[in-house]
């Protein structure tokens, strides 16, 4: 028999499975003396916790083709004590984007911050989807600059590329680097429409930076997960690095950027720089 995947039936089955797997004590309900005929919570209890009618819960669990609103999905996720991954899954089944998905992390996840340090001697840093710089290792400070000396509002890769005098003069092919950065930022803006801080950042660039405004109006959309950059370093001279931009599954709003020397001359130059 051929099986098909249907989001309405999966939504119904998912809600039933999570309701039946939840202990009443986990949601603050008193334990009843008489044995329950079915495991987990009753539909009446889920309805009360979620702020919807019992009939609505029944119809959802029977897969009658309902498309619950985002508010209802939020109430059900809260009532069923869903994990963040389960919550995002429920929103997706209902045809919505999970609330909070547009909120970027403002601090580095501790395991990722540790990974950045462990990647030495390769230069590495961690950003969010706004390209705010969250963590970096010593090698990255030697190659670019010491982000710890900057005020927090300037620890943004796009801001540095546009306005910091050292970074402005660092890239041999600066036009391409800035163009790629603007395309990346436009892609992030489209994927996170509710991120007001991101919209404000872009508005500031459009108002005060002619180069950014010109490239933004080209409406280029691109995300390069890997590539290369040639740098004209004030201490190490000209060197080329390959880069990989990785998105961790556990922390999808964070991005890990790792640089590797592209050739032996660049490796030697980077070794000398980081050994100082």
TrEMBL record:
- What sequence ranges are listed for the domain HTH cro/C1-type? 33-87
Q: Which CDD domains match?
A: HTH_XRE (cd00093)
Instruction: Tell me the PROSITE patterns matching this sequence.
Output: HTH_CROC1 (PS50943)
Q: Which GO terms describe its molecular function?
A: DNA binding
Q: Which SUPFAM superfamilies does this entry report, sorted A to Z?
A: lambda repressor-like DNA-binding domains
Recorded superkingdom:
Bacteria
The record's listing under PANTHER family reads: BLL4672 PROTEIN-RELATED
Q: What is this protein called?
A: Transcriptional regulator, contains XRE-family HTH domain
Naturally occurring in which organism (per UniProt): Actinacidiphila yanglinensis
- What is the phylogenetic placement of the source species in the record? Bacteria, Bacillati, Actinomycetota, Actinomycetes, Kitasatosporales
């Amino acid at each position: 028999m051929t099986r098909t995947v249907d989001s309405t039936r999966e939504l119904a089955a998912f809600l039933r499975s999570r309701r039946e797997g939840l202990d009443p004590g986990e949601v603050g309900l008193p334990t009843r003396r008489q044995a329950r005929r079915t495991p987990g919570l009753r539909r009446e209890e889920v309805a009360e916790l979620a702020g919807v009618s019992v009939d609505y819960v029944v119809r959802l669990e029977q897969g009658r083709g309902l498309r619950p609103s985002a508010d209802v999905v939020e109430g059900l996720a809260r009532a069923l004590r869903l994990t963040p991954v389960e919550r995002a899954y429920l929103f997706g089944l209902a045809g919505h984007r999970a609330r909070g998905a547009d909120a970027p992390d403002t601090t580095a996840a501790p395991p990722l911050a540790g990974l950045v340090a462990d990647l030495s001697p390769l230069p590495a840093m961690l950003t969010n989807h706004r390209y705010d710089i969250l963590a970096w290792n010593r090698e990255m400070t030697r190659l670019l600059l010491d982000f710890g000396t900057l005020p927090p509002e300037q620890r943004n890769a796009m801001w540095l590329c546009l306005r910091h005098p050292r970074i402005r003069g660092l890239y041999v092919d600066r036009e391409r680097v800035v163009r790629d950065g603007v395309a990346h930022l436009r892609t992030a803006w489209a994927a996170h429409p509710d991120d007001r801080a991101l919209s404000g950042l872009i508005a500031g660039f459009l108002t005060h930076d002619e180069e950014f405004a010109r490239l933004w109006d080209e409406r280029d959309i691109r995300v390069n997960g890997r590539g290369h950059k040639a740098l004209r370093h004030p201490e190490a001279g000209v060197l080329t690095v390959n880069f990989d931009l990785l998105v961790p599954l556990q922390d999808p709003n964070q991005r890990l950027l790792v640089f590797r020397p592209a050739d032996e001359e660049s490796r030697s130059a980077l070794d000398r720089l980081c050994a100082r």
